[in-house]
Design brief:
Number of helices: 1
CATH topology: Double Stranded RNA Binding Domain
Largest sheet: 3 strands, antiparallel
CATH class: Alpha Beta
Radius of gyration: 14 Å
Length: 68
């Protein structure tokens, strides 16, 4: 099963990893650690709550003008 991961830098260092299909969130000191932790957390979640995937999430960006 292929799922999505969104990683963002954590305030205190490292990375926060989020899986939008399940809502699982975790963190790690490196990208690799954050992804490994997310994979483990998501697998445990899916053991309890099986997922019926209806397509992949769409990730996009948008711009908000800054006020000078």
């Amino acid at each position: 099963m292929e799922l999505s991961a969104i990683l963002t830098p954590a305030v205190d260092g490292g990375y926060v990893a989020f899986n939008p299909e399940t809502g699982t969130t975790t963190q790690g000191e490196s990208i690799e650690e954050a992804l490994a932790n997310l994979k483990e957390a998501t697998a445990l979640y899916l053991e309890e709550f099986p997922l019926s995937v209806n397509g992949r999430p769409l990730l996009t960006t948008f711009h908000i003008p800054s006020h000078a």
